[in-house]
Amino acid sequence: MEHQEIMTTYLAAFIRQLSAMGIRYAVVSPGSRSTPIAMLLAEHPDFQIYMDIDERSAAFFALGLAKEKRKPVVLLCTSGTAAANYYPAVAEANISRVPLIVLTADRPHELRNVGAPQAIDQIRLYGTHVKWFEEMPLPEAEEEVLQFVRQTAARAVVTALQQPAGPVHLNFPLREPLVPVLKPSPFAGEVPVPAIENFSGTLRLSEETVEIVAKEIREKDRGLIICGPIDIPGFAEAVVALSEKTGYPVLADPLSQLRSGRHGKERIIENYDSLLKDPKWAGRLAPNVVIRFGAMPVSKPLTLLLKKVKTAAHYIVDGGNGWRDPVKRGTTVVYSDEIDFCKKLSNIIVMNPVSEWFTMWEKLNQQARQIVTASLEVEKTFDEGKTVTELAAALPDGSTLFVGNSMPIRDVDTFFQATDKKIRILANRGANGIDGVVSSATGVSAGCGKAFLLIGDLSFFHDLNGLLMTKMHKLNLCVILINNNGGGIFSFLPQADEPEKFEQLFGTPTDLAFEYAVKMYGGSYIQPQNWDQFRAALSEYKGGLQVIEVRTNRAKNVETHRKIWSQVSREMERYFQGEQQ
Amino acid sequence: MEHQEIMTTYLAAFIRQLSAMGIRYAVVSPGSRSTPIAMLLAEHPDFQIYMDIDERSAAFFALGLAKEKRKPVVLLCTSGTAAANYYPAVAEANISRVPLIVLTADRPHELRNVGAPQAIDQIRLYGTHVKWFEEMPLPEAEEEVLQFVRQTAARAVVTALQQPAGPVHLNFPLREPLVPVLKPSPFAGEVPVPAIENFSGTLRLSEETVEIVAKEIREKDRGLIICGPIDIPGFAEAVVALSEKTGYPVLADPLSQLRSGRHGKERIIENYDSLLKDPKWAGRLAPNVVIRFGAMPVSKPLTLLLKKVKTAAHYIVDGGNGWRDPVKRGTTVVYSDEIDFCKKLSNIIVMNPVSEWFTMWEKLNQQARQIVTASLEVEKTFDEGKTVTELAAALPDGSTLFVGNSMPIRDVDTFFQATDKKIRILANRGANGIDGVVSSATGVSAGCGKAFLLIGDLSFFHDLNGLLMTKMHKLNLCVILINNNGGGIFSFLPQADEPEKFEQLFGTPTDLAFEYAVKMYGGSYIQPQNWDQFRAALSEYKGGLQVIEVRTNRAKNVETHRKIWSQVSREMERYFQGEQQ
């Protein structure tokens, strides 16, 4: 066989196996060395190809798409720094447990480390940030090699999906000429190859072990179920059932997917961030048992409360057997499927579902909700908190909302109230970067057809390139851009008291008229002048790229937030005084 | 001492030592964890701070600045994916030997791998792509630790600069509170600390070793001195002198800094790319000795010629003791300072400076130059080759030109003729990525006051964010944007014959109106309609950001290039026929 035939046979075997394993999406960046893989992916009838010129954007796009689909997405780029551009998204995927199959084309061995163009050391390029790395062999058409290639494709899919899910990296050395043989198509009229099946067990505790947990819980009446970012279908029902059996309220991070949906919302506490802002109430709200699911919640006051509580039994339940305990108060780390754990524990516990403890949380939560809602209702000027409540009200049932890091996710945490509408809320909360957010949201929109994105101006700027995908692939993304002209989060930090260097180092105002960028990408741009116009822009959104820019003021925003929190604190004072009488 | 005082003492010792070692520039991205380093850098009177919101851009900006200054530049960012964004520029700096001092702030040990926010594994984050990594200790104010910190700062500078120069990475774990003590300023009224001196030897061959080289050379009359990318002051004079003594012509890559400047241009051959395009003349032009300096030249025909010549003595001279021989024809790898090698060899060799061999190259070079010049002179429509010749004519003496990868650097190679004007030509030719080019050029402009950038549309799009620095720091960058709406280089590759998938996978037209982006960044935008307008735009450039967009056609461009090369080949046919008669 000729070189090009051998290469085609070898790569076709790989791609056919990816397809047999159910992979359907590939995000590809143009390049020379990756030519045969790109052309064969495009030739195979099963793959939808998203071309993305900027590899950093491409990787975040794939991350968003994989997150939305809960399935691995293929990434493909050429050799050299192109592959290094994937690094931020790969690191994020690794921590936030998103399955990615990263394919990098590489120079063959004889062109490595000898000054050849576009060659960097790609062996273990992503270091500890991938679950698995494999240096692929040079193309051969021997059956043993082809079977290795099929096995590796299957294994890449299984490994990326295995809990905790994450990115895997395969590096393909390829020689010129790089054009594969497509006539006849290697996939034409083919008998489908079978997948290499993977039967994978689930972490389940024995009845005896669950009884140990139950025994401890039965004695404790001040329990909290705390749910951080977690996205497992069926978890909401299971954890609400556990709450009913234990009588413990459920503190639900916006990324726990518990604040919205059809499940019962009576046991969901979503205003704990406001309730815990004033540390003087920490004693009253301190639990004696904590059951945590998912990653750490975004709320800093909650983190501080957990830190203070040194004597509580503190369970950290993780089906991906992580040790996600930055507060270091965990007394038992439970490696178990979360739903199985909830069900088994619910089966053997019967406590008072509306204990005094539960009722206190319920009442305080309602009060906080009223204060937040009432304060924001009368707010005439553009405010970041009110943007969240207005957005929450406007989002249609069944929407998907992507939330930027830094301030937006904190604002959503504080101000997004529980609702029966189904709203899936997603964010990049592995490493919490402000990078790649536009691209991730765009990838999500590719997955579910339409997405909303709430984002700050620095983060929006950081990933402006990500908007190109909405143009090139006709995707539907409605961006709610909160523009406070700089890094709003720093106004909440101690450096805000050093006005001399503050604007230079932290405020970093860019004074950009984003309208131009939106026009360049063929989107529509609206800068509402009042809340009515804001609501109208949201409700009239039909599709394509639309950017609604809300101009806010960093100083004013800090003020509004602090005002609400002090109102909440005063209300709590009243509550606890009334209790004492 | 309090935590903040200790942290301030520790970091001030580090920064003071960087200053003592002569470091003057820091490129900083906003972030929380890096707060104390950023504030202390800003507090120190010696540092010029460039704030850059996008860390990928920041790293390429620092790369450009360091390249221009031939001095290390400090990079600083916060923890998490921010640091991963540096990866492409770090990989480029490592191969192209640009000194960078990368400082990443990190979470302290107790917040690593435990699910804390904005924490990724930063230990050896850049793998094999940095020269040196050091995990710094937590801040302490013990004298022994402070002395270690000073030593590490000094060593970072020395290591980054030591041949081959490159990036180093120091990772700083820092605890909250993160605001340093600036009142009183730790740098106020201070006695300057002494630098830790470094006396570093130069690689020099013994007289005996040089005589071995000279002995071989004296017997060979068909020698070529080939200079790839190299940027060492004084090298031009030394290598021209060597050419005069040996009678060998100097084939000069545009990045060898030999095509322009005050040194003698009589011995410089710059049209070898056109001369060697038609492989049928390879036999006539084949050398029996090759002396190579610098990285591999960009010219593919030259690479192919070197591959064909299997019996020539082939010296690869590298003061950075690399083994940069992708054609694998090196017979002797010389680790020596390039200038010292040229001088020593020149001292002991006297051959005919205008041998038949030299005269042949000289004549052919002149003929090729005439053909290129004449063909382009009559070209009325916008053409990529003519853009280069027009630009070369318009560039003022003393200019700096940054050249994008993919087609622009190849066009400059083919069409940029030798000139007595001093024009420094720079590019990212380590890994040859199309990423980060705008930012690198912007960094160069920060270093030398004003820069010109020749770039293609995909590369320009890839790093559009880089333009923000021209706005935020009032830099002078004149961009000549060659917009052929997609990946022009692929039209020269075999996949161009697969029209079905070509535009989707390789052409990737974006149809972007870049005028909007330029406006957003406060630049001026010109789209000339004819060559007169193009010339006027260049000659009237006063400063700030200016983008001159030249619209070309990919297919037409391939045609023009090929027409010129076939003319050159016909002319060579005539030359060699005449010679035979």
Radius of gyration over C-alpha positions of chain A, nearest whole angstrom: 26 Å
Provide the β-strand percentage band of chain A: 5-15%
What CATH architecture label of the largest domain in chain A applies?
3-Layer(aba) Sandwich
Shape of chain A: globular
Share of residues in helices of chain A:
40-55%
Distance between the termini of chain A: 91 Å
Judged by helices, strands and strand pairing, the structural class of chain A is: alpha/beta
Quaternary structure of the protein:
homodimer
Question: Which residues of chain A form runs of ≥5 with pLDDT under 50?
Answer: none
Give the largest chain-chain interface (CB within 8 Å).
Answer: A-B, 94 and 94 residues
- The pLDDT mean of chain A sits at 96
CATH superfamily of the largest domain in chain A: Thiamin diphosphate (ThDP)-binding fold, Pyr/PP domains
DSSP summary, beta strand count of chain A: 18
CATH class descriptor name of the largest domain in chain A: Alpha Beta
Side-by-side strand order of the widest sheet of chain A = 2-1-3-4-6-5
How many helical elements of chain A? 22
* Count of folded domains of chain A: 3
Characterize the main sheet of chain A.
Answer: 6 strands, parallel
Give me the CATH fold name of the largest domain in chain A: Rossmann fold
Domain Menaquinone biosynthesis protein MenD middle (chains A, B): 220-403
GO molecular function (chains A, B): 2-succinyl-5-enolpyruvyl-6-hydroxy-3-cyclohexene-1-carboxylic-acid synthase activity; magnesium ion binding; manganese ion binding; thiamine pyrophosphate binding
Catalytic activity (chains A, B): isochorismate + 2-oxoglutarate + H(+) = 5-enolpyruvoyl-6-hydroxy-2-succinyl-cyclohex-3-ene-1-carboxylate + CO2
Domain Thiamine pyrophosphate enzyme TPP-binding (chains A, B): 438-549
